[in-house]
């Protein structure tokens, strides 16, 4: 009887020091003009590196659990959607996908072996969107014109 050898991937944590907090006393042009300094780094309470990367197998599993369709029906559809998204990004197209957010391609660099490095920015909506909900603009509505009094 043949036995199948399985291996598990271990994740190792680096023992380097935590990133330094943003200094409160910066000497910038914004500080000299009494304007708040803008920092584009994410807030400290957002865990980014602690989460493992999502593989295609996990994506299919979660989609099956959430939608209730059979795995054999969901897998080809998800693979086709991923292929279309990959092709669009490789062409440098921006994506605007309601629950996920807006993806803007900033740079594309060719690497050896025919591969590409695509640098992009993802902007997600502030309020969580549910599938099937209508996305609304954040623009203010025009006020009603004043009603003229009869003379």
TrEMBL record:
The UniProt record lists the keyword DNA-binding: yes
Record region (Disordered): 1-57, 122-151
Compositional bias segments (type: Low complexity): 13-40
Membrane spanning stretches: none
Compositional bias (Basic residues): 1-12
Record-level Gene Ontology MF annotations: DNA binding
Keywords tagged on the record: DNA-binding
Name this protein carries in UniProt: HU family DNA-binding protein
Species of origin: Thalassococcus arenae
Phylogenetic placement of the source organism: Bacteria, Pseudomonadati, Pseudomonadota, Alphaproteobacteria, Rhodobacterales
């Amino acid at each position: 009887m043949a036995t199948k050898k399985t291996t598990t991937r271990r994740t190792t944590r680096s023992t380097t020091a935590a990133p330094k907090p943003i200094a409160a006393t910066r000497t910038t042009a914004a500080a000299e003009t009494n304007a708040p300094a803008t920092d584009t780094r994410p807030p400290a309470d957002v865990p980014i590196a602690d989460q493992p990367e999502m593989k295609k197998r996990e994506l299919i599993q979660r989609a099956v659990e959430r939608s209730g369709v059979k795995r054999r029906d969901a897998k080809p559809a998800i693979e086709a959607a991923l292929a279309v998204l990959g092709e669009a990004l490789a062409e440098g197209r921006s994506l605007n996908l309601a629950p996920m957010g807006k993806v803007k391609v900033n740079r594309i660099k060719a690497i050896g072996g025919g591969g590409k490095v695509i640098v992009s920015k993802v902007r997600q909506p502030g309020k969580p969107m549910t599938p099937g909900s209508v996305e609304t603009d954040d623009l203010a509505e025009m006020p009603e014109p004043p009603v003229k009094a009869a003379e």
